[in-house]
Design goal:
Blueprint (H helix, E strand, L loop, with lengths): L23 H15 L5 H36 L3 H49 L3 H8 L5 H40 L1 H48 L1 H7 L2 H53 L5 H49 L6 H4 L5 E4 L4 E9 L6 E10 L4 E6 L5 H8 L6 E7 L5 E4 L8 E2 H6 L9 H10 L5 H4 L6 E2 L1 H4 L2 H15 L3 E5 L7 H14 L2 E5 L11 E5 L6 E5 L4 H12 L1
Parallel strand pairs: 1-5, 4-10, 4-11, 6-9, 9-10
Antiparallel strand pairs: 2-3, 2-5, 7-8, 11-12
Bound molecules: adenosine-5'-triphosphate (ATP).
InterPro entries: AAA+_ATPase, ABC1_TM_dom, ABC1_TM_sf, ABC_transporter-like_ATP-bd, ABC_transporter-like_CS, ABC_transporter_sub-D, P-loop_NTPase, Sigma_54_int_dom_ATP-bd_1
Subcellular location: Cell membrane
Keywords: ATP-binding, Membrane, Nucleotide-binding, Transmembrane, Transmembrane helix, Transport
Length: 600
């Protein structure tokens, strides 16, 4: 069987064989996932719910034992034709059965509340950590963790569900067994011993037969995640696929992923059928055993007829209760992939939070020193490499962008212009040298492919801020200034929610991005081909607006039409380490002193 791959990133993430074992590492990871929730501040409510569950579960089991005893006595009353006794037991048993149903419903309700509350808490934790410190971006470029989104969305619920089942089952099974053991011992010690032996054998065999299932479940989880990602990919690129008429290619690709997912499901099903046959054989042995052991006692006159029924019922309940213990193994093996997938993402978060080297190799990887909170943008002896180390982009770049200046970065396609912006934004840090930048809240980045946030039109315009006291009238003026007057009216006002990335043209989205400069008033603006989709006249207007804000500008562009809006030019050369700079005459001496060092 081939090892699962990471579909989301396209990188091949080899699964660690340790992931398929219920070993010390697994239980350490499990502890690491459980501890933060159960020992957090305010965890008392969760513990209280667990107590209520315990109470309801105990009541359910104890009442079950009482019902079993009373049923035998009711049967004896029936045989002896004790009419009054019989109806008394009938009424009592009816009441107890109703009580049992009530307690089981209470237990189900509380466990659902606990489970969902836990899901919300854990998902929130994961989302917070995913978004903190640009972790989502780092995971994306590191490509050593497949489908992080699927882990957060799909693994949390089954994990919480399985874990809330465990205490409930331990408790129910424990009490059931205690009650029933007392009854069974009184009826037939031989039956009791047989039960113990049977259970021990069953537990060991269950452990053996379920071990391979963990790996199968793991493979299936990843295949399903990859299939889901394939479908999302078509949805996200629907228009492009339609233009290319790429349906056949997409179909082939999706069906390959679907086939893989189905195959892995089938592997599980085939295996489960084999396990079921094994269990059915055990069942048959168990079913014939009670009568074999108890009936002779009745023939010898040692026990009553009612006791036979009671003994058989007790044996059945014990079998069920002990079976519950064996069920932990299937529960754990089904939960294992989710435990490991959640633990892996947490471990990744921990490593990124601690800024720890990801492995032996990366501990030796040189990193750029990023200094935030500087007075201006300054690069010192900067050499940049792509995140995976595939390519060295440029070397020994020294550059200072004085405040209120406007730097244009030009150069052949693929030379590393956008990558330089990534280094300035602190997204890429593989290489050498120092990047000094002002604090990030003073900077705004306008990418070539504009980003439209989920939400209403107001949210688009004030992004990345979430709140602003700017009035609708002021927003309308901003829209007019970027030649989008009437947009709000066209889409039903600033509070109207749309899929903006689809309903607006690329040029309109680029103008929305410029509107953000006017609403956010950043001191530093970084643009990456941010006007590539608008006509020349609109481009001129947008740059004029930008100039009026007085912000320091660093932009990447191919079009010569934008040169006029800049007063410094950095030309990155194709061979990666020669840099030429131009600037206005009056500033040339300042800049030349910089160039002379770096071009050498
Ligand atoms: N995530 C990545 N991992 C590895 N290499 C990458 C990654 N992103 C970009 N590259 C490579 O880095 C090089 C520089 O890319 P960059 O986007 O900075 O070029 P550019 O000069 O802005 O190009 P263009 O003018 O075409 O936009 C390219 O060869 C590109 O293939």
């Amino acid at each position: 069987m081939s090892s699962p791959e990471a579909g989301s990133s396209g990188s091949h993430v080899q699964s660690d064989p340790q992931n398929f074992r219920l070993n010390a590492l697994f239980f350490r990871r499990l502890g690491g996932l459980l501890r933060p929730y159960w020992f957090r501040k305010g965890a008392w409510l969760s513990w209280a719910m667990l107590l209520v569950m315990t109470f309801a579960g105990s009541t359910y089991s104890i009442v079950g034992g009482v019902v079993s005893t009373l049923t035998a006595r009711q049967a004896d009353a029936l045989v002896a034709k004790q009419v009054g006794q019989y109806w008394w037991f009938w009424g009592l048993l009816t009441g107890l059965v109703v009580l049992r149903y009530l307690t089981i419903n209470l237990q189900n309700y509380v466990s659902a509340r606990l489970n969902l509350g836990w899901r919300q808490w854990l998902s929130t934790e994961l989302i917070d950590r995913y978004l903190r410190n640009k972790t989502y971006y780092q995971i994306n470029i590191d490509r050593d963790l497949d489908n992080p989104d699927q882990r957060i969305q799909e693994s949390v619920f089954p994990f919480c569900d399985a874990m809330t089942q465990v205490p409930q089952r331990v408790m129910t099974a424990g009490i059931d067994i205690m009650v029933q053991v007392v009854i069974l011992m009184a009826i037939s010690p031989a039956m009791f011993v047989a039960t113990l032996v049977f259970t021990a054998v069953q537990a060991v065999l269950t452990l053996v037969v379920y071990k391979p299932l963990i790996r199968l479940q793991w493979n299936s989880t990843i295949s399903e995640a990859d299939f889901r990602y394939g479908l999302l990919h078509v949805r996200d690129n629907a228009e492009t696929v339609a233009f290319y008429r790429g349906e056949e290619a997409e179909r082939k690709h999706l069906l390959a992923r679907l086939t893989d997912a189905v195959k892995r499901q089938l592997d599980i099903k085939y295996y489960q059928i084999r396990v079921n046959i094994f269990y059915q054989i055990l069942e048959i042995v168990w079913d014939v055993m009670p009568m074999f052991l108890i009936a002779p006692l009745f023939f010898q006159g040692h026990i009553s007829f009612g006791a036979i029924a009671q003994g058989a019922a007790a044996a059945m309940m014990i079998k069920q209760s002990l079976g519950l213990f064996s069920q932990f193994i299937p529960i754990l093996s089904a939960a294992a992939p989710n435990v490991v997938r959640l633990a892996e993402i947490q471990e990744k978060f921990d490593r990124l939070d601690a800024d720890a080297p990801r492995d032996e190799k990366s501990s030796r990887t040189p990193r750029i020193n990023l200094v935030r909170g500087a007075e201006m943008v300054r690069l010192q002896d900067l050499s940049l490499t792509t995140p995976g180390g595939e390519q060295s982009l440029f070397r020994n770049l020294d550059l200072t962008v004085p405040n209120s200046r406007r730097l244009l970065i030009t150069g052949q396609t693929g030379v590393g212009k956008s990558s330089l912006l990534r280094a300035i934004a602190g997204l890429w840090n593989r290489g050498n040298g120092v990047v000094e930048v002002p604090s990030s809240d003073k900077m705004l980045f306008l990418p070539q492919k504009p980003y439209m946030v989920l939400g209403d039109l107001r949210s688009q315009l004030i992004y990345p801020r979430q709140e602003s006291d700017i009035s609708d009238e002021a927003l309308e003026k901003v829209l007019e200034r970027v030649r989008l007057g009437g947009l709000a009216q066209r889409f039903g006002g600033f509070q109207s929610e749309r899929d903006w990335a689809r309903v607006l043209s690329l040029g309109e989205q680029q103008r929305i991005a410029f509107a953000r400069i006017l609403t956010n008033r950043p001191s530093y603006v970084l643009l990456d081909e941010a006007t590539s989709a608008v006509d020349l006249a609109t481009e001129e207007l947008l740059y004029q607006l930008l100039l009026e804000t007085g912000a320091t500008v660093i932009s990447v562009a191919h079009r010569t039409s934008v040169v006029q809006f800049h007063d410094m030019t950095l030309h990155l050369d194709a061979n990666g380490h020669k840099i030429r700079m131009r600037t206005d005459e009056q500033e040339s001496s300042y800049v030349r002193s910089q160039i002379s060092e770096q071009v050498g």
